[in-house]
Amino acid sequence: MSTLITNLGSLVTNDPSLGTLTDAAVVIDGDRIAWVGAAAAAPQADARFDAEGRAMIPGFVDSHAHLVFAGDRTAEFNARMSGQSYTAGGIRTTVAATRAATDAELEANLTRFIGEALRQGTTTIECKSGYGLTTEDEARALRIAAAHTPETTYLGAHVVAPEFKEDPAGYVELVTGEMLDACAPHARWVDVFCEQGAFDGDQARAILTAGAKRGLIPRVHANQLHHGPGVQLAVELGAASADHCTHLTDADVDALANGETVATLLPGAEFSTRAKYPDARRLLDAGVTVALSTDCNPGSSFTSSMAFCIAVAVREMGMTPDEAVYAATAGGARALRRTDVGLVAPGARADLLLLDAPSAVHLAYRPGVPLTAAVWQDGVRKV
Ligand code: NIG
Ligand code: FE
Predict the structure, then answer these.
(1) pLDDT at 261
(2) Considering 336, 356, 373, which residue would you say is the last residue of a domain?
(3) Distance, CA 300 to ligand 2 centroid (Å)?
(4) Domain tally, the chain
(5) Which atom of ligand 1 is nearest to the CA of 159?
(6) 275: Cβ below 6 Å to ligand 1?
(7) What is the pLDDT at residue 166?
(8) What are the helix (H) ranges across the chain?
(9) Domain shared by 266 and 287, yes or no
(10) What average pLDDT does the structure give for the chain?
(11) Neighbours of 236 (CB within 10 A)
(12) Domain range holding 18?
């Protein structure tokens, strides 16, 4: 079954040889894109969809989210908006609620957030563990997540579990031993929160190296709240992504520019913690590949909206609208080392977002306005 989507006012392909097309059309065949080009030259297909001049982009690739949890942290957010600062200590509140929840409750929450994201155009989403912090609770978070996305990340090293408050070395031993054994079969990636009060550079190195030995590819929560060794460690270990990148020295920027690690920026976190935004312009000017993601979690960034992240990145982080849309699609794909998503080209997965707007610039130009006109995922119209 093939479908011709035609009369696209603009089409962002992210394919260097195609660029952004006007008066364009796309043919979907099964779960893949079969043809992309000028509407006037489009081939026949079994079905036809008239886009009526609207703009299309690849479905958003949200490469950083924490979606297996229970409870919320409204009170903490309220306190922050009255002047308290974010410390990540609230992670333990969510750990307690998550441990107390049933599998069915966790799965219902997860599917609700994935559905919420899909309705806003997100067709690929990464999901971390990190609110269980016991072998059993981390493994069940990943088992539940793996049933809904292939992009699962073992984050047993989110913070030191409360039971190990006096014995952080013992917790690192657990995370690199028994917990890793139980989690590795359900995860593609290994992550660590490298930050004051969480894990230092040596602990992070031990955790990422142990994960890599089990076939998990590293990614790092790096330089979020303070400057630290996370970014340089990520580059040194060939991590797919260094996430947050808020506090960077010139040496960190150089390391990213000379390495293969993507800088994933998460403006929802700075927005919701009233913190300084990362400087995307500095990274882009240095030649670093930048991704934009939501960091969706109940503490620091409770948004599933990639459009919101684009708008903030353009207004506050020095990105142009085109750069921000690229970072939220192709950038996320790079951060997840995926070549089948984040672009509209023959052979790519038919993950498409049709906007209720004549161009993708409207994602930043019309902040807060729901612009989803239609979403296809794996060739199936979902919205
Ligand atoms: O990416 N920084 C660490 N982890 C999350 C916050 C988690 C939480 O506050 O619950 C983040 O911002
Ligand atoms: Fe995060």
Answers:
(1) 99
(2) 336
(3) 8
(4) 2
(5) 3
(6) no
(7) 98
(8) 74-81, 91-100, 103-119, 135-146, 168-176, 178-183, 201-213, 230-236, 250-258, 267-273, 280-285, 306-316, 321-326, 332-335, 362-365
(9) yes
(10) 98
(11) 14
(12) 2-58+343-381
CATH number of the CATH domain containing 171: 3.20.20.140
Q: 254 and 165 in one domain? A: yes
Q: What tens digit of pLDDT does each residue of 125-176 get? A: 999 999 999 999 999 999 999 999 999 999 999 999 999 999 999 999 999 9
ipTM summary value: 0.96
| Closest protein CA for atom 3 of ligand 1 | 193
In CATH, what number is assigned to the domain containing residue 347? 2.30.40.10
pLDDT for res 181 = 98
Q: Is 297 in the pocket of ligand 1 (CB under 6 A)?
A: yes
Q: What is the pLDDT of residue 178?
A: 98
**Are 299 and 264 part of one and the same domain?**
yes
> Measured in angstroms, how far is the CA atom of residue 366 from the centroid of ligand 2?
26
Q: Do 133 and 154 contact (CB within 8 A), yes or no?
A: no
Closest residue CA from atom 12 of ligand 1: 300
Q: Are residues 67 and 52 in the same domain?
A: no
Same domain assignment for residues 85 and 39: no
Whole-angstrom Cα distance, residue 111 to residue 116?
8
Whether 38 and 21 have beta carbons less than 8 Å apart is answered as yes
In the reported structure, the alpha carbon of residue 221 is separated from the centroid of ligand 2 by a whole-number distance in angstroms of: 6
Q: Give the residue whose CA is nearest to atom 1 of ligand 1.
A: 295
CA distance 208 to 218: 6
Domain match, 103 and 246 both: yes
| DSSP 3-state percent helix, strand, coil across the chain (nearest 5) | 35, 25, 40
| The pLDDT of residue 249 | 98
Residue 270 CB less than 6 A away from ligand 1:
no
pLDDT of amino acid 138: 99
Percentage above 90 pLDDT, the chain: 99
Q: Is 246 in the pocket of ligand 1 (CB under 6 A)?
A: no
Are 357 and 299 found together in one domain? no
* pLDDT for the residue 88: 85
| Residues of the binding site | 64, 66, 73, 131, 158, 221, 224, 295, 297, 299-300
Sites in the chain below the pLDDT cut of 70: none
Burial (CB count <10 Å: 0-12, 13-18, 19+), residue 287: exposed
Report field, pTM of the whole predicted structure over 0.95: yes
Atom of ligand 1 nearest to the CA of 300: 9
Looking at the fold, whether 144 and 280 belong to one and the same domain comes out as yes
CA–centroid distance, residue 319 to ligand 2 (Å): 21
Q: Ligand 1: does its nearest atom lie under 6 Å from the Cβ of 193?
A: yes
